Each structure stands twice: as C-alpha cells, then as structure tokens.
Amino acid sequence: xxxxxxxxxLALPFAIAEPKFVSPVAGSTISAGTITVTWEDGGNAPSIxxxxxxxxxxxxxxxxxxxxxxxLKAGSFSGSNSLSVTIxxxxxxxxxxxxYFLGMIATSGSGTLTVFSDRFSINGMTGxxxxxxxxxxxxxxxxxGPRPVNVEADERQEVPAGQEASFAIPYGQQTGLTxxxxxxxxxxxxxxxxxxxxxYPSSSVVFASMxxxxxxxxxxxxxxxxFVAASHPNTAPHVSHPTDAMQRFLNRWKD
Length: 255
Prior knowledge:
The protein is 6% helix and 27% strand.
C-alpha cells in the first residue's frame, strides 16, 4: 500500500498566485488517519501574499454540490509551511472511488477565495454516505474537483455579466455553489400602512430527528440597489452654550 501522500503545502509568503493542491494526486488512494498536507503556487490571481488565514476542509459529493464532511484545521499563511491533519474513518464511506476532495477557504482583506483539490479515494473508511450523497456521487465522471470560487467583499454590489436573470429565480429553486438574492428594500420615509397582517403565509416547521447535511452553498450574491441617497452638511447655525441657571443645572451632571 502506498504511504499517505502529502495533501497540502503552505505557500511561501511571496508566492504570486492562489494556492493549488499538489497531492493527493488525482485518482490516487490514501489511508484514513493522520496525514501531512502541502500546496503550491497555482499560477492565477489573487496573490498568496494577500491572503491572511485559511480553513482546510474535507468534501465529498458532486462538483456542483460539494458536501462538507470534516473541518480539518484552521491556520495562518504566515505560519509553518507544513502541518498534519487527521481524517477520521467514520466521516464517510469507502464507495465509490474518487469520492473525496479537499477544500480550502482562504481569507484576505477584500474577500474570500475557495479552492479545491482533485478527487481521490480513502482506504479504511467505515461510515455510510447519506442516500442523497450517494446519488450525487453516482453522477460524477472524471477526477477533477470543483472550480475555485473567488468572492470579493463588495461583490454583492456588482452583478457579473450574464447573471442578471439568476435573480429572477426563486431562492429555494436555485442550485450550485452560488445563489442569488433579490434587491434589498429601502425603508420608506413615512409609515402609511394600516394593515398589520403578515406579508407571507406561515410555514410548517419539521424538527430534525437526526444530523442534517452541512450547507453546500458557498456564497449568496445580493442584487445591487438602484436607490441613491444624497446628503449635504447642516448649514444651520449652532446654538450658543447655556448660561446662568441652565448652565449650573448641566454642570451638576458632569461628574
């Protein structure tokens, strides 16, 4: 059996691009337990020197609906360039092949960057995948992992070209790593409504009787507001300081 390959290499402080997983090699097999992880320069922006911290995760599922299995470790890009993580044998099943891939959520001052590894297999897994995950895994082909997701801090104010129609799709009917929310409403300047009935009918609530799957949506984009507010300085003259009895009254509360 092959020895557990490295999964992640923390890039040098002045690397020029996003992190890219070098191992496990696409289609390879590793063993559950403690492993060492590494990554390298991926050749695409943003610069790794602009990234601050990261969260390393283990995923399964399809490329369009990644399912998080384990939170492996958090760290800083200014730390060591190698680390060990432990993959518990109980977090997933042994079927099918290439059911697993790594994900890393890296943060910077301008947003977050999520990168994924290629798919690989893990020996010694004793858990069972939920039926929905098995269905997704049955649809995968190849060993390529999901594409990177780059979310700028102000991206909710800028709609990417060609995605305008996505905001018209009801939120609950959308699929994929990114969802689209309608424009936020601007409060009115005067309350005129007298009908206090709820805007929407009530919905039933079913309490979970077992562990639910982790959310698969990485980000939500909110449609930009078209409302523009204008402001100007207050030109009214200031009121002079109080004197006499009023001033003495105010002075009582200074201490």
